[in-house]
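Dissemination and training. As part of the outreach component of the grant, students in the summer workshop were shown how a complex can be specified as a set of sequence lines and then modelled as a single object. The example used during the hands-on session is reproduced here so that future cohorts can follow it. Participants entered these lines:
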Amino acid sequence: MSTDNPTTAVDDADPDVDAAELQALRERVEELEESMAAVDTGDDQKKMTIVATQGSFDMAYPPLILASTAAAFGWEVVVFHTFWGLDILHEEKSKDLKLSAVGNPNMPVPNAVAALPGMDKMATKMMQKKIDDNGTATIEELIDLSLESGVDLQACQMTIELMDYDEDDFYDGVTTGVGAATALQHMAESDIQLLV
Amino acid sequence: MSSEYQTTETLDVKGQSCPMPIVKTKQSIDDLEAGDVLEVVATDSGSMSDIQGWADGTDGVELLEQVEEDDLYTHYVKKTE
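and obtained this result:
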């Protein structure tokens, strides 16, 4: 008797608890489905934040191409430019970005030759010609397009001061007076974060 | 390259490469009304995949057709809303 009782008690109790639990779970699933549906319809827009740290001619392209294309998708886009990446937004310097001939194994000359004076200039000219022949947009065009389509191009305030730049040196529409905290905030809100 | 669509406007991006065909398509679509069809003529072979990806990922547009002929890539994009 004494051994039967606990067994029957457990057997009886289990279906009861399960049914109650099941009901609670069903309600919870319904609740979650409803809130998911609300989230899906409410926040359909993607957001991308790129941190652009490089200011050489070739490295200026990827962030600008991705940013302007993402804007065409209707995404909210922030590009935070810091250190050498700042030169991309600098109105004068952006027109004179250089490609490094040294340290690039794809260059047709060995490093010892690439290190000679004038080689960076030549490599830049070669690349510029390829870009023109290919119908690839200029950096200035991509900046204009990005700004036109609502991309937030940000210039890191600390680097502006470090490089001794003036806020007026940058293209109209560039956001200044922002720092790492702003960049992090955008990254945290983004679906896609890239460091270039 | 005849199409059965009534194209409202033609965008010529011949000679231009990524990302221009997409960026300019988006700009042109923005200027159109719902129901309008934009014809995009490109020489960039990457535009076949790119326009498709863009249309798939963008609300309010529908890619009707893509035609490849004589190194020309023609896309028909409808503005749906």
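Chain A is about 50% helix and 15% strand. Students were then asked to discuss how this feature might be tested experimentally.
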